[in-house]
Amino acid sequence: QGHRKESKTMKILVLGGAGYIGSHTVYELIDAGEEVVIIDNLETGHAEAVHPDAKFYKGDISDKSFLNEVFQKENIEAVIHFAALKAVGESVQKPLEYYRNNLNSLMNVIAGMREFGVKNLVFSSSCTVYGQADVLPVTEQTPRKQAESPYGNTKAMCEDIMRDFAKVESGMNLLALRYFNPIGAHPSALIGELPNGVPNNLIPFLTQTVAGIRPQLSVFGDDYNTPDGSPIRDYIDVVDLAKAHVVAIRRLLDGKNKANYEYFNIGTGNGLSVLGLIKAFEKATGEKVNYKIVGRRAGDIEKVWADTTLANQELGWKAEVPIEETLANAWKWQQALMKK
Ligand code: NAD
Ligand code: UFG
To answer: What is the distance in A from the centroid of ligand 2 to the CA of 328?
Structure first.
């Protein structure tokens, strides 16, 4: 059983577990029988998204002594670190806040893990590290490009911190998942994406438009070099993404990792355009999306999608939820929100 400690009291610490992807991951971990402790400062997360069976500490992990108190009190065997600020545009306006929060948090986490003998970490990275890749789909060997935003740069820097730390701490296992575009919601509609204010991302803006909260969805450009002219992304269902964390943690706990720093693409392997996604949403839900083509959004890349061979083979993980089901769940979640 590798270096897994077979004790019922060993727990998984989920940092940012009240956020979008963290809350879905906690649901999957608890379904898989794990005991979960969450830390979240609720800056962008929501108390209602905290799974009722998880133990919750409200606090900020850029405060090292607070974080270490939790390591001291709880018997933690692995950490999943989602806690970060993630708004690309805001990061351009507030670079210091982004560097401070995202970098200090990771450094506190790995220092705390070393101090308290916790050996396993899964970290949220992003396909943003590839920028506009020259060759598609991107594999893990695709060279990273200079980040377009301070946010993107924090992901590249955090990966580098993990790589450098792993070189000298051979007993610790660090694993980064490079997410493509996470969308959708838990099929129960108990949790989902809940942005504060006007959404930056496509799906919450789209569902809020269909719900009548926003008058119209702007499609940012139809003059790209793609079949229909709109940009292409790899949209990954948030529950599939959550399950990737469960298998990644299992890989580390079972000692199956091949190096003490590893990274994997987590996407579907399929590229979908913005206009294609709107059509798929209309088909899946029977709702009409009121949209208008407008100019390009600054900083957007034209197209990116994942080669997921490595994750498929090494993690034994594969995206499973069909896009129509993902979009139907996103709409179901938006409708559930309207009833609250
Ligand atoms: P989110 O904002 O919903 O979740 C992040 C959570 O972390 C929030 O609940 C927030 O309150 C908490 N948090 C932030 N800083 C904290 C701190 N210092 N101390 C304690 N809690 C803190 O975002 P998400 O979409 O769930 O993203 C999770 C992770 O995945 C982030 O690291 C993000 O950068 C990364 N990621 C997200 C996407 C995406 O499109 N959603 C894509 C790639 C990578
Ligand atoms: N889009 C619109 N209208 C909108 C919002 C988005 O047309 O109102 C388009 C964008 O131009 C883009 C696509 O929808 O082509 C997806 O946009 P999102 O903002 O949902 O996602 P991005 O691909 O821009 O960004 C996401 C994450 C970032 C991460 C990046 C990495 O939100 O955190 O992927 O590529 F850095």
So the answer is: 19
Sequence-distant contacts of 279-285: CB under 8 A, at least 24 apart: 280/323, 280/324, 280/327, 281/206, 281/210, 281/327, 281/330, 281/331, 283/324, 284/323, 284/324, 284/325, 284/327, 284/328, 284/331, 285/210, 285/327, 285/328, 285/331
The whole-angstrom separation of Cα 70 and Cα 50 is: 17
Convert the pLDDT of each residue in 52-104 to its tens digit: 999 999 999 999 999 999 999 999 999 999 999 999 999 999 999 999 999 99
* Residues in Cβ contact with 283 at an 8 Å cutoff, skipping those fewer than 6 apart: 324
Q: Do 57 and 68 meet the contact criterion of CB atoms below 8 Å apart?
A: no
Exactly one of 27, 151, 179, 224 is catalytic; which is it? Answer: 151
Report the distance separating Cα 142 and Cα 49, nearest Å: 35
**Annotation says 235 is catalytic:** no
Q: Encode pLDDT of 266-317 as tens digits.
A: 999 999 999 999 999 999 999 999 999 999 999 999 999 999 999 999 999 9
Q: What is the DSSP string of 109-121?
A: HHHHHHHHT--EE
pLDDT band at 340 (very low <50, low <70, confident <90, very high): confident
Pocket flag, ligand 1, residue 149 (CB < 6 Å): no
Closest CA to 204 of 218, 194, 190: 194
pLDDT tens digits along 33-50 = 999 999 999 999 999 999
Instruction: State if pTM tops 0.85.
Output: yes
Which ligand 1 atom sits nearest the alpha carbon of residue 22?
26
Q: Which amino acid is at 5?
A: K
- Which atom of ligand 2 approaches the CA of 296 most closely? 11
Task: Please give the DSSP secondary-structure letter assigned to residue 138.
Answer: B
Residue-level pLDDT at 2: 44
Compute the distance from residue 107 Cα to the ligand 1 centre, in Å.
16
